[in-house]
Each structure stands twice: as C-alpha cells, then as structure tokens.
C-alpha cells in the first residue's frame, strides 16, 4: 500500500476552534468542550492519505440524488456531505472519475488509489469482512419499477421474469433471494439498468428506492414504482481496514456536522420540502 502518512492533529485543532465560534452563544467561553479534548487526542493516531491534504473519493456517479454527474462535476447529497466532512478535517475532497460500483470495495481494500468509497454503500456483514464502514449517513430501502401497462402490480407477479439490477448491489441480492425463478441481470451502471427496462430487455428494476424515485421523477416519467420494500438499509462510507484512524476522524467529523447543523442543511437541500 503506497500511502503517505500525515498527522492532522493541528488541522483538526484549528477546525475545532473555527467551528466553535458559531456555538459561542450556547457554550460559555472557557468551558472545556468535549471536541477540544478530542482534538488533543488526535495526535495519538495517524491518518494515511493517498494524496497529502486531500480526501480522495471513489464513487459510481450514477446514483442521484446521492452522487451523480452534472457535466464534469460530481453532485449530490453524499457529495456535499463528503465535501463538508473533508473541510471539517482540514482536507479537500477530490473525486476520481466515476468508478464501476462493484470495483470500489476491492479498490479501497487494495489501497493506493482512493481513501474512501462513497456510493450509497449499504452496510452489510459480508462487506464488513473486507472493509470498514463509518457511522451511518442515511437510511434507505429498495423499490421495484415497471413500464406502464405492464400488468405487474406487485413482486408476486414477477416470478420467473427478467429483473434488471446493478452489479454487486443489495438490489441484485434481494431480487435473487426474493423473486422465485427470476432471471436477475446485473448491469454496470444505473443508466444501463433503466435502459434495459425501457428497451424491453427486462420486466422490472430492483434498486434503491430514493434513486429509482429520482430517476422516475426526472428522467423516466412514464415508468411506475409498484412496490417499496422496507429493507431497512443504511448507507455509510467505505474505508480500508488498514486505516482505522481515518474511520475515526470521519466519524468525529460526521458527529460534528450532525450537531452543528451542517448535516441538516445538506439533508434539507436534497430531501427537504424545498428540494422538490
Ligand atoms: N445501496 C446499494 C448497495 O450498497 C446500491 C448502491 C449503488 N450505488 C451506486 N452509486 N450506483 O449495494
């Protein structure tokens, strides 16, 4: 693993000091806040980064509203959150070109290319054997999409049918395990998953509910979501098992963004009433 080690205690301390300012009203000056003592512990562990000063991110940029491409630029709820996390850690977020979803975990565990994988990654026990997850970013579920007038009204109608999914996803696994006799076809990209349904190569799509809702609302407005499946999935950031200090720092930064209102701002931007 070819990585440089840097101590970010100083940066972390500076940031804690900076973010402490807006909180002055609720926190008497001179009181010893817990974040300040966290910062003084920061020197005890070293975060390894692929590039100094940068938080290098691997993502499959086909998953709006979490991460998507707008021209050349990565945009989305997780993109904003990652930028805020990086800033909180005194780093700059840098996205690699869109990376095929099912290659991201191997890429992170091999090391050297990206520090984190952020792509609507559901926390699963299987994945935990290969990589570490941070604390949870947001909850999710699965959804089932069909063409209009398909005659399919529930998952029960899909037995033995062809289901389009994204390769290496929980949607693929769910379809294999729950739709009897289905031919579950994995595609590299979500755009190919939707193209397959549109082009009649598949009878239905199974993928993450917020994402299929987004695609149906904005791009494939004729398609229908016939079922919401409460899988209770939770997204988190993927980090190498060799970099536990980075997981710790990300968790600290996430906790801070959840208390200082930044997480809520980002959430409301993408999922609040005004995001409609
Ligand atoms: N939540 C699902 C999983 O973890 C799907 C994630 C797909 N992400 C993407 N960016 N295409 O398997």
Give the gist of this structure.
This protein is of the alpha/beta class and 276 residues long.
List keywords for this structure.
single chain, 276 residues, alpha/beta, D-Maltodextrin-Binding Protein, domain 2, eight-stranded mixed β-sheet, three-stranded antiparallel β-sheet, 10 helices, 36% helix, 26% strand, disordered N terminus, binds arginine
CATH topology of the largest domain: D-Maltodextrin-Binding Protein, domain 2
Fraction of residues in helices?
25-40%
Structural class: alpha/beta
The tally of strands reads 13
CATH class of the largest domain, anyone?
Alpha Beta
- As for the number of domains, it is 2
Question: How would you describe the overall organization of this protein?
Answer:
It is a single chain. Helices cover 36% and strands 26% of the residues. By secondary structure, it is α/β, with parallel strands linked by helices. It folds into two domains: 30-137 and 236-271, Periplasmic binding protein-like II (D-Maltodextrin-Binding Protein, domain 2, 3-Layer(aba) Sandwich), CATH 3.40.190; 140-233, 3-Layer(aba) Sandwich (D-Maltodextrin-Binding Protein, domain 2). It has an eight-stranded mixed beta sheet, with helices on both faces. Strands 4-5-6 form a three-stranded antiparallel beta sheet. Strands 1-2 form a two-stranded antiparallel ribbon. α1 packs antiparallel against α2 (34-41), α3 crosses α9 and α3 (77-88) packs antiparallel against α10. The chain is globular, with a radius of gyration of 20 Å. Mean pLDDT is 88; it is low at 1-44. The chain binds arginine (ARG). Arginine (ARG) binds at residues 60, 62-63, 67, 101, 119-122, 166, 169-170, 190, 208, 233.
């Amino acid at each position: 693993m070819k990585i440089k080690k840097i101590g970010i205690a100083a940066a972390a301390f500076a940031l804690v000091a900076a973010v402490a300012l807006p909180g002055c009203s609720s926190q008497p000056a001179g009181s010893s806040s817990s974040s300040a003592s966290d910062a003084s512990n920061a020197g005890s562990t070293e975060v390894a980064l692929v590039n100094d000063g940068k938080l290098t991110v691997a993502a499959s940029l086909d998953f709006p509203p979490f991460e998507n491409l707008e021209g050349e630029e990565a945009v989305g709820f997780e993109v904003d959150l990652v930028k805020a996390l990086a800033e909180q850690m005194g780093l700059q977020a840098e996205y690699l070109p869109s990376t095929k979803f099912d290659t991201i975990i191997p890429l992170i565990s091999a090391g050297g290319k990206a520090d984190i994988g952020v792509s609507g990654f559901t926390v699963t026990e299987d994945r935990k054997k290969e990589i570490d997850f941070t604390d949870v970013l947001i909850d999710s579920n699965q959804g089932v999409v069909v063409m209009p007038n398909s005659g399919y009204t529930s998952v029960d109608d899909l037995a033995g049918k062809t289901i389009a999914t994204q390769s290496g996803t929980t949607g693929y696994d769910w379809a294999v395990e729950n739709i009897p006799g289905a031919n579950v076809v994995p595609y590299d990209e979500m755009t190919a998953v939707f193209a397959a349904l549109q082009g009649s190569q598949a009878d239905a799509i199974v993928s993450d509910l917020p994402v299929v809702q987004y695609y149906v609302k904005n791009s494939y407005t004729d398609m229908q979501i016939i079922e919401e499946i409460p899988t209770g999935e939770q997204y988190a950031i993927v980090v190498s098992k060799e970099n536990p200090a980075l997981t710790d720092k990300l968790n600290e930064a996430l906790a801070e963004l959840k208390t200082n209102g930044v997480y809520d701002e980002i959430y409301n931007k993408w999922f609040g009433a005004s995001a409609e």
